[in-house]
TrEMBL record, chain A:
This is ABC transporter domain-containing protein. Residues 25-237 form the ABC transporter domain. It holds the Pfam family ABC_tran. Belongs to the ABC transporter superfamily. Signal peptide: none annotated. One of its GO terms (cellular component) is plasma membrane. One of its GO terms (molecular function) is ATP hydrolysis activity. Its EC number is 3.6.3.28.
TrEMBL record, chain B:
The keyword Transmembrane helix applies. It is a multi-pass membrane protein. It is found in: Cell membrane. It comes from Bifidobacterium cuniculi. The lineage of its organism: Bacteria, Bacillati, Actinomycetota, Actinomycetes, Bifidobacteriales. Residues 65-85, 131-178, 463-502 are annotated as: Disordered. Residues 141-157 have a biased composition (Low complexity). Residues 377-447 form the ABC3 transporter permease C-terminal domain. This is ABC transporter permease. Residues 68-81, 477-493 have a biased composition (Polar residues). Keywords: Cell membrane, Membrane, Transmembrane, Transmembrane helix.
Amino acid sequence: MTDKKNTAAPAAQPAAALEAGEPILRLGDVSYAYKKGGPLVIDHLSYSFDTGRVTSIMGPSGAGKTTLLSLISGLTVPTGGRVLFEGRDLATLDRYDYRSRDIGVIFQSFNLLPGLTVLENIMLTMDASGKRFDRPKKEIALELLDQVHLPRHYADERILHLSGGEQQRVAIARALSDDPKVVIADEPTGNLDPATQEDIMAIFLELAHEQDKCVIIVTHSPQIAKASDTVFELKARR
Amino acid sequence: MFIVRNALCNVTRNKGRNALMIIIVAIITAAATVALAIVQAAQQARASALDNTTITAQISLDRRALMGSTQPSGSDGTTSGEKPDMSALQQSMADKQLTLADYEEYAKADYGVRSSYYTVTASLAAAEDGIEPVDSNGTVTSSSEDSSDSGTTDTQDAPSAPDGGMGGGMGDMRGGKGGMTVTTGDFSLVGFSSDEAILNAPNGSFTMSSGEAFGYGEDDADEVIVSDTLAQANGIEVGDKITVANAADTDTDYTFTVVGIYSNATDEAQPQGGPMASTASDPANAIYTNEATLTKLGLTPDKTMEITDSRGNTRTVQSAQLSFTYVFAGKEEYDRFVEDVRKAGLGHEYTISSEDVERYEQSMVAIDNLSKFATTMLIVVLAVGAVVLMVLTVFNIRERKYEIGVLTAIGVKKAKVATQFAVELLVVTLVGLAVGIGVGAATSVPVSNALLSSQVEQQSQQMSQFGRQMQRPDGGSSATDVQQAAPQLSDAPQGTPGFGEHAQNMIDQLNATVNWATIGWMLLVGVVLTLLSALVAAVFVMRYEPLRILADRS
């Protein structure tokens, strides 16, 4: 069981930030059970995620990392407590809007649409957000490819023709396409070679530090944890 | 809306799957289009077949109904069973016989009757020094004895119709038409009320080969026209006077002036009644005149005469038979007439019948069958189509669960996802519908005509079986049976009888072209089925849990 006491935040818990104002994303005594009355996968968890920082969520298998990811990405709602985005309870918000506008999620298996091209995948998310863009979407999408270090000639390639690392970069570009405040990544470096891992991590750090986004990474990798600003460690349930 | 754009892109992205879908929808649509075109064409054929033609109808006494009422034993009056009380029957027949005034009473424009005409037919015997009738072999008989012997049985005395069957019923209905039903005597004298009556002469249409037709005035009262066969056999020329005798009283001679010689459009060497029929039933022995002639001679339906049959029994029969025909502008008027006349008090022992309508019904048999078949096919095809479309949609959408997951995960609302799938489905089915309607339009006419001709053939075979039974000159059948058959046959259209003929008259062409109505219906049905399938898709999408995307690692 994980509880507050067991929750470790070794890299200088920013108490000052908490007091200064509402964090962008906050877990308020969150619990989650898959079945009503069933065992709690997440048990009374509280935590704050800040903008401008890269936070790694670590923990052994079964500690509830994926569940936590689904809670903060608005795919589901907690059975107890609240997930607050900018002080508003996610359970009361339109979570489709939340997913399409406020956050960008990079799934472990990327979850790109294989039939679409790189550009189409990115632009579909921009369309889905319903946001207005001051420049042509294609231009923004091509710039995002630059940002994730993917050559522009990939723009019209089908996803199926890309390698894992390339798909990962497209997934990141897609997550960033609608300019979200929070970027959530699930095992973003799982199957990548060390050089690519480093490159990807550099992109995340740049997002947090230069674009002032809240970056949350769910990972097993100690290197990622070490490179991130904050590590939120989940303990294995007994 | 990006969802629509995405849907349209998806249609081209999944070419193989959508092509398959288009083919299936097109096949179903083509089949349904042809079926619908047939059903609509059949309806139209039914509605328009009698639109521009006039309909003639007769009122006749239903012998069978009358017999039922005079026969308390309840036997249906077969020849083998107990004979009905003939004198009672005859009496009631005589009482029930409609007079010219009765007929004219119903010939009101209020009832939908456009015009009416009638013929009065009497039979005449050969006078001793007069002309001789043409017998069945086309030669002049030397003596009239044979024919007058065999002719003594009047059709009205026929104890019954052949048991059961269609023929019996039709015989009863047509029995009253009169024209050629008089089988006594050697000649038939047919008096026409007007040119319209002549146009519808009982022996079929004819042309004047020399001379001209009689007038209708009192002055024209002894003018007659004779058939070219009879003229040839007796050496009659226009202007000659011919002498014939009263059928009941051979001492009473009548003399007519031949003003013309006519030629029947269809020449029948053989009278229809078989070897024992009277020569009076031979069209060649029909002497045509105006109705005034018969009135002048006292040969009117309200008078009677006594004839003696071969057993020496003397019976009283009508001097002449009246055949009254009503003409209607269309089927609608005819139907109104039937209704109005019944309301006006025409009893149920009378039958109102129209050969045109009967023939029309006969001609519609094949089309009706085809229409029934097409309706069944339409229902089956649409039901199968609906099921196939839904199954395909369900399979399609199950295959695309991942896509639903991705779209909902990036925040596309389920309703929009469902809309996207519906639009995709609609685009694909619309293309399939268009192709299917096109194929259906191209094939509906040949396909429906092929189906119709096989129907006609099938019906013809059945009909000709009936026909053979009816015409069988069975040695075992009595003379009355044979004569019973005669009037029905000679009453048949164009003088060429038989049920097989009817079958051949069946409409064997159907203009099953696909019109805008067909296209409209098909589109409507197609769109409704698509929306139904889209609803299934929507239910599937709505039930999808976005959380499952985390498990969908494909």
